[in-house]
Design a protein that fits this description.
329 residues; TIM Barrel; 2 domains; 8 strands; 14% strand; globular
Length: 329
């Protein structure tokens, strides 16, 4: 059995960071408190004040904090930005050229892996020589898995064909949601979505039916005002966009190209387990399949609730992953 190496996506501390209760150094100190050898995943656009032209002072401050806290820079998150130009929208392949600046920033900060948020087979063909030339591992984030998403299957097939050792994928566990997260529904209710509408859309989602049926279910409810219907319909579309229903077996298909895992979670239950994502099954696929990369906790509940303590959530989440990893296959 391969060893388990843990870490944290810095986005997990977005609540205290955006509210100015923690700066970047404070975030690294907090992550280091979770235990030794904590990997970190950073998005330059979110965490670096001087982005995109990251200053030497920012780089120096970051590396000093890394050395002092002992956290391990693992993955730098970049975006394929097609609309940065004022003159026109770039094609995805044209946007690859802008990644060179992001890769240079990642290397200055001490990261050996750069995540690209999206790609097509054509983009992969452009990424391969870039990865080889810069000696950085480029990984494409997957928000779906190949058994339910043909586009993901096409990416994996292209990776097979390219056989580039510097190219791979990052799997986000948000691809495997089984239940619409309660913090998301609570936030929608606080924003004016009616309880009956939320119950209707969640029931249709849970039944595996398409978003159109969820919208129809909302529109058929009696007694709702136009504003309530509009809020519930909007919530339905957001839920279907954020929470895909992937098959756990699809993670096994990803394993040959899997370099990194973002272990997304929303809010732990009283037992310390994420109720919306089948963690026991997913961790078993990784462990039994010989996965040797890192598993980085990504807490997203702060987007919808200020009552959830991010550090408490992260600490308990890592404890649960470690427990699952040690279970007898």
């Amino acid at each position: 059995m391969s060893s388990l190496r843990l870490g944290v996506v810095l986005f997990s501390l977005g609540g205290p960071f955006w509210q100015r209760r923690l700066d970047l150094t404070g975030c690294l100190e907090a992550i280091a408190s979770l235990g030794p050898d904590q990997g970190i995943e950073l998005t330059g656009a979110q965490s670096l004040a001087s982005y995109p032209a990251v200053s030497d002072d920012d780089v120096r401050a970051f590396r000093t904090a890394v050395d002092r806290t002992g956290v391990v820079p693992v993955s730098y998150c970049a975006y394929l930005e097609r609309a940065r130009s004022r003159s026109r929208v770039l094609t995805p392949v044209e946007a690859v050229g802008q990644l060179e600046e992001e890769i240079a920033t990642a290397r200055r900060l001490g990261f050996g892996m750069v995540r690209v948020n999206t790609a097509t087979p054509e983009v992969l063909r452009a990424l391969a020589p870039l990865a080889e030339r810069t000696a950085v591992d480029l990984v494409v984030e997957l928000a779906a898995e190949p058994r339910t998403d043909p586009a993901t299957g096409a990416l994996l097939a292209e990776l097979d064909r390219l056989a580039c050792p510097r190219l791979g994928v990052l799997q986000d566990f948000s691809a495997f949601v089984r239940t619409v997260p309660q913090p998301f529904l609570d936030d929608a209710a606080a924003g004016g979505a009616p309880a009956a509408g939320l119950e209707a859309l969640a029931a249709v989602w849970s039944a595996g039916r398409p978003v159109g049926e969820a919208v129809d279910a909302v529109l058929c409810l009696p007694g709702l005002s136009p504003a309530e219907r509009g809020s519930a319909v909007q919530t339905a579309h957001i839920a279907y966009a954020l929470f895909p229903r992937g098959e756990v077996a699809g993670l096994g298909d990803v394993l040959p190209h899997l370099r990194h895992v973002q272990a997304k979670f929303f809010a732990l239950d009283d037992s310390g387990t994420e109720p919306c994502i089948p963690y026991a099954e997913l961790v078993a696929v990784l462990r039994d399949g010989g996965y040797a990369g890192r598993v980085h906790s990504e807490f997203e509940g702060h987007l919808w609730s200020d009552d959830l303590d991010a550090m408490d959530q992260l600490r308990r989440h890592q404890r649960d992953i470690s427990r699952l990893w040690q279970e007898t296959p």
